[in-house]
Amino acid sequence: MRLLDIALLPLITALWATCSVAGQQCTRETANVRKEWATLTPTERLDYIDALHCLADTPPTYDQATYPGVRTRWDDFVATHINYTLNIHFNGLLLPWHRNFIRIWETALREECGYKGYQPYWDWPSNSLDLAGSPHFDGSETSLSGDGEYDESAERDLSLPKGTGGGCVISGPFQNHTVNMGPFYDAPGNKFPDDAFAYNPHCLRRDLNTRVSSYCNSPDVTAALLAAPNITTFQTIIDKGLLGVHLNGPHGCAHASVGSVMGDLWAAVADPAFFLHHTNLDRMWALWQEMDEGTRRVALNGSSGIYNSPDWPEVTLDTPMVFGELDEVRYIRDMMDPMDGVLCYRYE
Ligand SMILES: [Cu+2]
């Protein structure tokens, strides 16, 4: 019952200012603008990278007794995601929960690390044929670091073709980035791992895989997603892609195409690409919602258990969502419009 575990309710809510000051309307002019990584100037990219390093150098707020693996402020986010993994994936909470998770992260970057920009996104088709050659993953100092060192025997998802890395990231700003929890590659997707918060420092590993991205993060997939006639179809494409095969949708594929840590359902938040990926998923939802606001601002489908487990209730606008100590309880209805309530952003 982790999602409703009120014992973890926020202690630091007051720290989280929101962008919409009381009484001030969010408009297109006042909304925060989130941009694609490749369209940021080199200086803007370096500012984002600096802010990530800052979160990795800032002490956590979670206590060590309960969360021994949480060593940094970034790890607070990793642990929160691990804690709720069984309630926020392949179901009705995926989109609204991650929408607020991104907001909290973006706020922490700005308020705790002096970041002046907004959360960038990774437009999947822009590099689906050449991940390692893209501004996202080319390993340059303005990238999110590149591929891992080639390692034939690296632990990986055996249902996928082998990628081009598998070992520790050896280029770019995150080659010394330490992942403190996980990995949980073998953990079944329906059972909470033993020692989920154990301290296990290891390198950031990647296994870039264009054989995965080229077919399931293609422009065709994005187009089909945006053309989905209803939320059920939209979610089915996110999870299963055009072929209707589990984990072959653009959400899972983008995780798998970066591979290793990013491919870890539980601990992927430790890869610096995580929030760019999820922000693009959020962008897809936002663009889709905009096309028919009357219907799509209230369109929900699925339960709050992983894979829409019938053991959990169907989500409604009144379903509460918890974020551990990172935020207060939010309701799905608070997350249906990026320009309403605590949200005030748009995509460019
Ligand atoms: Cu997630």
TrEMBL record:
SUPFAM superfamilies: Di-copper centre-containing domain. Keywords: Copper, Metal-binding, Oxidoreductase, Signal. Residues 271-282 form the Tyrosinase copper-binding domain. It comes from the Eukaryota. Residues 1-23 form the signal peptide. This is Tyrosinase copper-binding domain-containing protein. It comes from Aspergillus keveii.
